[in-house]
Amino acid sequence: MSSGNRSEEAVDVQKSYEVRTYGCQMNVHDSERLSGLLEDAGYVRAPEGADGDADVVVFNTCAVRENADNKLYGNLGRLAPMKTKRPGMQIAVGGCLAQKDRDTIVKRAPWVDVVFGTHNIGKLPVLLERARIQEEAQIEIAESLEAFPSTLPTRRESAYAAWVSISVGCNNTCTFCIVPALRGKEKDRRTGDILAEIEALVAEGVSEITLLGQNVNAYGSDIGDREAFSKLLRACGKIEGLERVRFTSPHPRDFTDDVIAAMAETPNVMPQLHMPMQSGSDRILKAMRRSYRQERFLGIIEKVRAAMPDAAISTDIIVGFPGETEEDFEQTMHAVREARFANAFTFQYSKRPGTPAADMDGQIPKEVVQERYMRLSALQEEISWDENKKQVGRTLEVMVAEGEGRKDGATQRLSGRAPDNRLVHFTQPEQPVRPGDVVTVEITYAAPHHLLAEGTPLAVRSTRAGDAWEKRTTAAAAKPAGVMLGLPTIGAPAPLPAASAPACGIG
């Protein structure tokens, strides 16, 4: 059959897609690209809650968790009967688990049509087409990056906030992490390309960007410029219309004084820092191959707070790493008391197959890990609440968010993020406000994980970001039910979850 005949047959068919995302912000942003690729190829997004009722279902997987494969195969198993009943349905598996397991996926789930890796997401549309024509599974795993993924079409989940990748891969060798083996060595984008993307986003109405990298502040390692990241932050400060700049996740090893100075001296870089500590024990940090010790970590925090007294600092912590003694754990508790994090993402250690830590002696019994986890969580909850109480009485500019407040409808409130990334629920003002607009409020109450502003907002500022949200929403409402499907073409955030688990939880 000629390609021309296929195109003529395809134009009469409307095909839908669904992308399911697991894991870190890197995967969330990759899923935006997968959606962009599919829409560029003529697919239309399935309605919310489709739950597999789509012509193409894509799983963008994570390999960080021990049970990641069980979760994937469970979901694939539930789709098998749906695929039998729906002729022409295709299932694709990508991401870190696909990069790791490769042929295993099709052996365990032979109804999967496409398996693709972290380095070649741009091939998805053509792989789907090839699988359809050849009527057999297509497995394509590139061993290295073919093209920086930001060159691909992207369907961004938010009209007012956006991820911007500045690097991919990681040069660290943390013993608990498999990500460097799956995403490769760090590769940096050209600064000019990053700034051009940000400027284009701002021109479209985006007012907040988050710079994204596996080890974001190591940016510049390709060219040997240790100050490249701080220079990038300062360059972002010169982009007119860009109101908020964030980044995740930095590594303490590369957190230099020039980065702190750039954060403090660049007005649109927000007073927020998420920096993974992982453990407070020097002995465990060494076993993790983390290149800093407790004193160094706490010293960075002290410098950040001296430069930005209002900065909210968050972290990642692993409890129960192999060999962790009660004394080691108490060192973590001590570090948490000293650091006074605004919040912390605490994880119970679980084996990641393929990592050095999985084969280490001294694996901690689950009940011990659970007990320590509960003690640490209780301590951090208390600290988070105390730190949030300090916000009561403050006047804050809150960027209105979409989907952040689950109870907003019932409480007649709206929700958004303060400059330091704290979640704020506030009384709905009399005048209409849209996601992306900015509301000035006074904080009246603090809970451990959010703030309340119960009085009438002090001011409302309509923004270009709000205009962009309104334009997108209006266009979506007026859009026809579907678009016609042609042959695939090949390419060369919901609102940003500000407090979601950082990139692969490693940093």
Automatic annotation (TrEMBL):
Record-annotated MTTase N-terminal domain positions: 15-133
Major place of residence: cytoplasm
Keyword terms of this UniProt record: 4Fe-4S, Cytoplasm, Iron, Iron-sulfur, Metal-binding, S-adenosyl-L-methionine, Transferase, tRNA processing
Residue span(s) of domain Radical SAM core: 156-387
GO CC annotation terms, alphabetical: cytosol
Binding site for [4Fe-4S] cluster 1: C24, C62, C96
One Pfam match: UPF0004
GO MF terms, alphabetically ordered: 4 iron, 4 sulfur cluster binding; metal ion binding; tRNA-2-methylthio-N(6)-dimethylallyladenosine(37) synthase activity
Cofactor entry: [4Fe-4S] cluster
Domain TRAM stretches: 389-457
Residue positions binding [4Fe-4S] cluster 2: C170, C174, C177
Catalytic activity of the protein: N(6)-dimethylallyladenosine(37) in tRNA + (sulfur carrier)-SH + AH2 + 2 S-adenosyl-L-methionine = 2-methylsulfanyl-N(6)-dimethylallyladenosine(37) in tRNA + (sulfur carrier)-H + 5'-deoxyadenosine + L-methionine + A + S-adenosyl-L-homocysteine + 2 H(+)
Subcellular localization: Cytoplasm
Top-rank taxon: Bacteria
InterPro entries per UniProt: Elp3/MiaA/NifB-like_rSAM, Methylthiotransferase, Methylthiotransferase_CS, Methylthiotransferase_N, Methylthiotransferase_N_sf, MiaB_methiolase, rSAM, rSAM_horseshoe
E.C. number: 2.8.4.3
Bound cofactor: record note: Binds 2 [4Fe-4S] clusters. One cluster is coordinated with 3 cysteines and an exchangeable S-adenosyl-L-methionine.
Function: Catalyzes the methylthiolation of N6-(dimethylallyl)adenosine (i(6)A), leading to the formation of 2-methylthio-N6-(dimethylallyl)adenosine (ms(2)i(6)A) at position 37 in tRNAs that read codons beginning with uridine.
Family: Belongs to the methylthiotransferase family. MiaB subfamily.
Cross-referenced PANTHER family: CDK5 REGULATORY SUBUNIT-ASSOCIATED PROTEIN 1, MITOCHONDRIAL TRNA METHYLTHIOTRANSFERASE CDK5RAP1
Quaternary structure annotation from Swiss-Prot or TrEMBL: Monomer.
HAMAP family given in the database record: tRNA_metthiotr_MiaB
Protein name as annotated: tRNA-2-methylthio-N(6)-dimethylallyladenosine synthase
Gene: miaB
